[in-house]
Structure formats: C-alpha cells, structure tokens
Amino acid sequence: MTTGAWHHLRNDAGARAAAAVLAAAAACAVLAPALAPYDPTIQPDPVALRLLAPSWQHPLGTDPFSRDVFSRMLHGARVSLGVAAGAMLLSVTLGTALGALAAVMGGWVDTAVASLVDVLIAMPRLLVVIALVATFGTLSPWWLVVLIGGSGWLTTARIVRAEFRDHLQREYVVAAVALGASRWRIIRRHLLPAVAPQIAITAALALAAVIPLEAALSFVGFGIQPPLPSWGNIILDGVDYLTSAWWMVVFPVGAVTITVGSALVLADRMRVAVGGEEHEP
Amino acid sequence: MTALLEVRDLSVEYTARDANAPRAVRAVDGVSLDVQRGETLALVGESGSGKTSLGRAILRLVPAAAGSVQFDGTDVLALSHDALKAFRRRAQVVFQDPKASLDPRMCVGDIVREGIDIHALAPREAGDLRVAHLLEEVGLSARDAHRFPHEFSGGERQRIAIARALAVEPVFLVLDEAVSALDVLVRAQVLDLLATLQATRGLTYLFIAHDFAVVERIATRVAVMQRGRIVECAPTASLFSAPASPAAQALLAAIPRIPW
Fold first, then answer.
1. Which residues lie closer than 8 Å to B55 by C-beta, 6 or more apart?
2. ipTM for the predicted complex
3. Of the N and C termini of chain A, which has fewer Cβ atoms inside 10 Å?
4. What pTM does this model have?
5. What is the average pLDDT across B229-237?
C-alpha cells in the first residue's frame, strides 16, 4: 500500500477499531492455553456442572458435558481463526497467482483460468465442501484449510486479472518491456506493488467469508470434529438447549459476527483509503 | 553508408471490438522509411494517423501484421528471445506523458537503474554511480535519486524518463511525442537537452510529433503520416519551404507562431 493510502487508513477511526478487534481475536487465539481457566475438553462433572448459567466461576456458563464455555471459546478461536487465516492465505495466494498468470500470459492460459472461474463460481461453495466431506469422510483441520481456501480464490483471481490487465497497458509497464524486463520482473517490480492494495482488500473480504464458512461446516458436523472446539461446533452443542441455555449459542454467534463485521469494516475502510488516493492530483 | 533503421511495407493491425463482429483496423498501412545514423527523422501526423503504432512496432512493443524492420542489419521482427533483449539495449523509447511512464511507487534511482539491473551492466555501487552520472547528464542532481516522481515537475519527470532510456546506452531513441505535453519554455529546454545528448552520444532519433511546431528545430528530415501511410518525406528545409502533399500543407498552416 502506498504511503498516502496508508496514512489515510491509520487516521481512520473505523479502520483502527476494526483492526484492534481482529488483533484482540488473534491474541485470544494465540494465547488461549494461557488465558483459558479450564481445560476445554475435560468433563469435570457432567451431572453437577452441566449447563450452568454464566457466573464468576464460569463467565460464559458451561455446556451439556459440564465443560467451561469460555475456555472452549478461547480454544475455539484458535481452531476457527487458525483455519480461517490459513484458508484466507491460501485463497488469496492462489487467486493472485492464477489472476496474474491469466493476465500476463493471455491466450489459452487466460481462457483456461476464466473458464475455471466460471465453472467454480456456479458451484455453491458450502454444498461442494459438504459433498467432498461426504465422499472422503471426516476431515482434519488441515484439509478444511485446503478445501475452504482452494474454493475461495475466484474473487481474488478476477480482481487481480482485471487490475493487471489495466496496468499492463500503462506506459510505465510498456517502458519496462522496452527496457527488456522479463515477465517475472514486471510482475514482481511493477504489477504486484501496484495491485497490493486491492489484494489486501480481497484478503479482508476473504477472511470475512471463510470464518462463517468454517462455522457453518462445523455446525452441520462436517467441519471440526469434537472434542476439539470450534465456534461452529460450540453452537452445535448448544442448539438442542436453545430455549434453556442461551449462552451456548449467543456467545459463539456473537464472536463470529464481531470478527466478520470487523473484517468487513476493515475491507471497506481500505477501499475508501485506496479510492481516495486515486482521486488525488 | 547504410541506414541504421530500414522499415519496409510495415503494417500494424488492431482488432476493434465492435458491438457485432470483431474487425481488423489497420493503424499502419504498408509504411517504408529509412533512418540514417546520427540523424533525427521527424514523424508528423494528426492524432490517430498511426505514428505511435509505427514507433511501437519498430521497437516490437506491438506486433506487426506484415513487413520488415531491419535495425543495423538484423531483422527485428524475427529476433529470438535473447537477441530481442540485446536489441532492447540498443533501441529505447521516451513517451509523451512522464506522469504515466514513470512507476509512481519507485524512487527515481530505482527507475533509472532498472535497465542497468535488467542487463546486468554494473554491480551495486558502480550502478549507483552510473545513476548519479545519468541524472546529472540530463540536468538533475544525484540527490534526486532518493525522491519519487510526484515530487518533480513535468519537465523534470521527462528528464528522468530520458535518463532511464539512456541507462542502457542505446544508439537509437524513439521520442514518442516526448515534448508535446510540456509547456513552451520547458519544451525548449528538453529539446536543447536532446540535441546535446545527440551530439555527445551520437544518438539517432525517431521524433514523433502531432504538429510541426518543434520539428523545424530538431529534425534532419520529416515524414508526414496520414491514415496509416507516409504521404511525404523530405529534408526539413525543403518540406517547410515547399510542402508537396495537402497533409503537409495543412500541418504547416497550423503552426502556432511562437517566438523561441
């Protein structure tokens, strides 16, 4: 990101708040073992400590197996946000690589990537992943990263391809071609720095898309498998007790909503910062 | 003496994406011209006459549909990958709008240095020294290497673009409306710089312009282009005193009389 847009972003209260929320969520995920008061998987007394309402002992209550929901939420952040971050990185990397390849190579490569995007965009992502899980059995978190990330690169690829094609026409790129620069050099030195802000925006949007996707998969039982906690399967554990134990659903849903909302706000503020810069003289 | 550049029957086509069917548009239509070593051939024509396409096809920046380009005895249009890279060291280009032709995210030193790095002409410190010399040669300061293009005026930016082109030590420069966007005084200064560089470095220029205003001052010969064809080509003095084609007469009549 160029210095002008960066300054704009740093002085934007909305962007700072959103970044702070995401940083806090990431800190919870990283520090979960140190912060969690209880072991997230241990079931101390499934009779006496079952479905306790929030209290000083258990700030977010306990679940039907007497486990501490607060501890499970912290460890769940580790799993959910870890899978989301991995999937986001994979999809943005794949999208950037394929979009760049299509734009720079042109010809049949461009046609092939465009066709692949058209086919994949027509597929409902959640249902495709469910079908794959049904085919291959339950998945480890790593496979979730691969499946969610591998199916999420389309938007990034489209944006990177369009931006690259625009910049390829510009005279500073033609000047580099005239100097004898290789395609790889032009991508690395000119095109990627030019398009980096747009890639950052798609990364924030990708994060906002994959967090609920992981939660949804775990909620329907195809994602993270118990006893490993994720925000999605904590909701699943609580859904049978919706009317009696609201804390099992409200807190994880709130966590998903707040992190996704922050990612969306950050994407929006980045777009404003980058757009504002392009209108500068 | 053989010409440095011999262009024969060169055509350039673009595919116009109309609402219905794509059709080929001939931007350059069977152009032949020679550029002698050390001279400045001015290529003049109104907007859309194909001058820029011709210049870019000569440098293999756009594909040619037909014809041949001989540069110092080698066929430019048939060059292999490695030979093309060697050709790019010898033939360079300066564009009209230096705001668009300089990467806004790179500092001036990196911009000028790019050709040196691509062709591995100098290691790190020697390269810095060369960049400093180039900046001084075009009338800037060695300290400007650390600044960014937006910190400079239009004329200074065009000097940066010229330094970038000179970094690979070319013998031939396509100056594609290189002074057209500059205001009158700055234009005169950049033209002076180009004349000095031509004398000291023995450069050959293909000077593309859309009017005759500055051509008289810099050109050895003038080629007039209209609708993709060259309609007249003559030494500057004779073309200015007795233009033969209607296109040249119209362009001549349109010269704004600005005192230099």
1. B43, B93, B174, B176, B206, B208
2. 0.92
3. C
4. 0.86
5. 92
